[in-house]
Amino acid sequence: MAAPTQGEDSDDGMDEFMEKFKTQKYHNAFNESNWEEEFEKVPMFMKTAPENIDPEKHPDLACIQHIIHDDDRTPEEKARSLKDEGNEYFKEKKYKKAVVSYTEGLKTSCVNPELNAVLYTNRAAAHFHLGNMRSALNDATAAKKLKPDHNKAIIRGAQCLLELRNYAGALQWCDEGLKLFPTDKKLQELRATADKQKREADRDARKAKVKAKKQQNEKEALLAAIKERGIKLLKTEKPPHRASDSEDEDRDEDTSRALADLQLDGISSQEATGARVYMDEQGVLHWPVMFLYPEHSQTDFFSAFSEDASFIDHLAVMFGEELPPWDIDQKYQPQNLQMFFEDPEKGNLYQVDLQESLLRVLQHQRCSVKAGTPSFIVLVSESPFSRQFLSGKKVQRLKLLK
Hints:
Residues 194-216, 234-256 are annotated as: Disordered. By secondary structure, the protein is of the alpha/beta class. The protein is 47% helix and 11% strand.
C-alpha cells in the first residue's frame, strides 16, 4: 500500500480532531437525556415562547423580540436604546459608529430634554475624539441649551474652544460652569489653561503687530528712497510693450502708481533665493542683480549689489583668475566684455559703460527694474555671436548726465 502523500496526510488536522471523539465527547454536545430541553432554548425550535423573556436567560430571543417589536416602543425607549448602543461603540473607540447611533437617537422625536442633552453631549465627545471640533462644539452648545447645568456639556464645550484657540470663549464657558460648580477641578484646570494660553496669544499678537509696523515703516522708507532716486519699477503683470510710444509724463505716472501699490514681494527677486532690494544703515541701496550670457545660456545672480559699486569691479571678480567652466575659449576677460540693458517699452538695447555705478545706470530714463531685479546682458565684444545677436536690434550707447 502506498504511503499517503503530503496532501492526503490529514485534512488540515480534521482526522486528528475526529479521532478525539473515540475517547472523549464534545462537552457542549446534546445528549440523550437533555437534547429536548436544549432544543427548547433555541428560538428556531421552540414550541412555545416564555411569557416573560429574561434577556439573561434568553439573549437570542430577547434580540429577536426587540427587532420584531421595535415599532411598538416609545421614542424615549428607542432613544435610550440607541444611546446605550452608542456608548458601547464609544467604549470600543469606534467613534464614527457612536456618532451614527447618537444621531439616530436624536432623530427619534424623543421629548425628554435630559436624555437629548445626554445624546448631544455624548455625540460631542465622539466628534471630539474624531477631531471634529466644530461639530463637537455645536453639540455641546445644543446640550447646554437643553440643560444649562449639564456639567459634561460645559466641560466639553470649553475643551473644544481651547482646541479651536478661542481662548476668550473657553474662559466664558469655564466661568459660567464655575458659577454652577465652583469646586469642579476639571473646570478650574481648563480655565487656568485657557487664561495662560490667552495671555500668550495676546503677547504674540502684540509682537506681530509691532513687527508688522516695523516692516511697514521699512517698506515705506525703501519705496521713498527708490522714488527719490528716480528709479522706475515695473510690475510683473505689466505688458512688456505698448501699442504706441507715450510721453515721459505718462510713464512717470505709471511708475508713481506702481510705487504706491507695490508690496514687499513686488520688489522681491523671483529667484529661488528670494533676495530683495534693501537699504543699509548708511542709506545705501543693495539690489539683487541678474547677469545674462545668451551665448552660453548661462546666468549669474548677485543677491546684494551695492548701488555705489561699478560694474567693472564685479566683472573683474567674476572673470578674474578663475574663468567659468562654460567659457571654454576663455573669451570672457573683463576687457573684452560689453554690457547692455533692454528698454522694456521700445525693445531697444542700451550699452552700459562698465566704469559706471549701478545707481547711475538705474537712474537712466529708459532703464526700468522688473520684478525687483535689474538684469543686464553680457557679450564678448566683436565676437561672431555678439554681431549676430545685435544685428537687427537698435543699440544705443548709454549717455549719462554728469
